[in-house]
Amino acid sequence: MKELVIGFALLVAGCLLLFQLVDDSVLSGIFSLSSTQVTKADRLSVIYINNNCTKHNVTTNELPYHDLHMKWMAEEVTKENYAKANISLEAAYEYVDQIAIQITSQNLFGEKVYCHYFDSNKKKIGEPFESNVFPESVIYCLRRAGTNYVSLTKKPNDTPEYPIPLLDRTMEKPEHYFSVCIAPFFGTEPKWLMIAEFVEWYKLQGATYFYFYLAEMSLYDRIILDDYVRTGEAEVVIMHDRFDRPGDRWHMLEIHDCILRSRAHSKWAAFVDIDERLTMTQYKGTILDYLKNIGDKSIGSIQYRQRWIMKTEDQPEKYINATETVKWMTTQRYTNTSHVGPPGHTAKCIVRPETIGAMFIHYPRKFNPGFNQYGLTPEEGVVRHYRDQRFDNWGKTWIKEVAAFGPFEDTKLEENVSKQLVETVVKRVKYVYGKAQNGYK
Ligand SMILES: *[C@@H]1O[C@H](CO)[C@@H](O)[C@H](O)[C@H]1NC(C)=O
Ligand SMILES: *[C@@H]1O[C@H](CO)[C@@H](O)[C@H](O)[C@H]1NC(C)=O
Ligand SMILES: *[C@@H]1O[C@H](CO)[C@@H](O)[C@H](O)[C@H]1NC(C)=O
Ligand SMILES: *[C@@H]1O[C@H](CO)[C@@H](O)[C@H](O)[C@H]1NC(C)=O
Ligand SMILES: *[C@@H]1O[C@H](CO)[C@@H](O)[C@H](O)[C@H]1NC(C)=O
Ligand SMILES: *[C@@H]1O[C@H](CO)[C@@H](O)[C@H](O)[C@H]1NC(C)=O
């Protein structure tokens, strides 16, 4: 039995270089050796897979759904028009059929912009390509062979913004089945425990990846986020550009970006806030079980109705011990629960990113042709939303609307799930924040 150890892979000039400790006979079973050049130095083989770099060396000549996008643009779908800002590039994605660039400006809806292409040495490739901003902070561009970096300008001859690298989204199969997109963090309430409780909850529900967005956060809170990055369970996107804005104004940018980021990377992606826990109710199984059992391929989104659980205090500032951790976990501390909101009311969903034409916080504004949404019944699942009463004056204003849905009652998580959650949260926060007693002496 031959052993194959994949050391690491590097993307150089858009071509795949694999560094492996291998035996040639193993290789031939995996790659077509006729198109593979192998050089050997001791047991370290550097394999250059000369597939013409087809993966990253493709030119396309039409944008998918272009006419539909122009129609939606004319209807002003997703137009919010916040503030005044110039183009700022956040991220760029290369898919099989196109490139998408996410910007953090929200005042350029529908405007003409130009995509610029660069190779790995940041040398310009060809003439700029004319496109439009749609949805509100997204620009689709054709793929162009040899491109590693892209940029944008308002006029074709303007100096492009600093080019940014293309993130690879040309995978044939998504790496994750169920991931979670989380609204950007801002504000001063401590979040370390909320983050652990959130991540561990969704992991118990079968999620394997988390896309976090960060506008503002304490260094202490940041440590747990980075720890989830360390273990390959999360990435953190920094929301920053040179134009100031209130913390909540990053939200729609996250929504648009996470559709792009999760597309081809995750089969399903939930769009939620840190205080929202999508929960199956009478359905026996996890969220992942539910997703895997969706037979109807036209379903591009499943939507959960809301129940608000009254959170009345700030979260603790720092880790103390296990007892204090459990005491302050929102799922353990708060039980006063509103009646379920009506269908659609501030609902949250899990979507298949590639079916979405234009996304919103609570539902997809547009699906690509052939897809639609299924609304979960409250018997299948709801959002358990641990809503702070004081933030945004919620407990004085919104509460009236929520109280009108019906009576409040005490509800808890199902006992077994609750127990598992407590266990995993206590373990992780102790691991990350608990100081060992035997450091330098
Ligand atoms: C990329 O493709 C073009 C033709 O489409 C070809 O001329 C060029 O050699 C390719 N580059 C690499 C690095 O494979
Ligand atoms: C790329 O590979 C294909 C198939 O192996 C071959 O026919 C073609 O000539 C190659 N093109 C380049 C530019 O190397
Ligand atoms: C924004 O763009 C305008 C017009 O091109 C320019 O005058 C201004 O300096 C830019 N501001 C920043 C902060 O880039
Ligand atoms: C945990 O911390 C609290 C608050 O400091 C303290 O009262 C309690 O005794 C501690 N419990 C344990 C088991 O150390
Ligand atoms: C639950 O919350 C509602 C709304 O704030 C409040 O009116 C009610 O008294 C609370 N119930 C309990 C048992 O605390
Ligand atoms: C909870 O766990 C116990 C013991 O493992 C098991 O017997 C019981 O069926 C579980 N309950 C549910 C609702 O899963």
UniProtKB/TrEMBL annotation:
It is found in: Membrane. The keyword DNA damage does not apply. Residues 1-24 form the signal peptide. It holds the Pfam family Glyco_transf_92. Its EC number is 2.4.1.-. The keyword Glycosyltransferase applies. It comes from the Eukaryota. Its main location: membrane. One of its GO terms (cellular component) is membrane. One of its GO terms (molecular function) is glycosyltransferase activity. It is an enzyme of class 2 (transferase). Keywords: Glycosyltransferase, Membrane, Signal, Transferase, Transmembrane, Transmembrane helix. It is a single-pass membrane protein. Belongs to the glycosyltransferase 92 family. This is Glycosyltransferase family 92 protein. It comes from Diploscapter pachys.
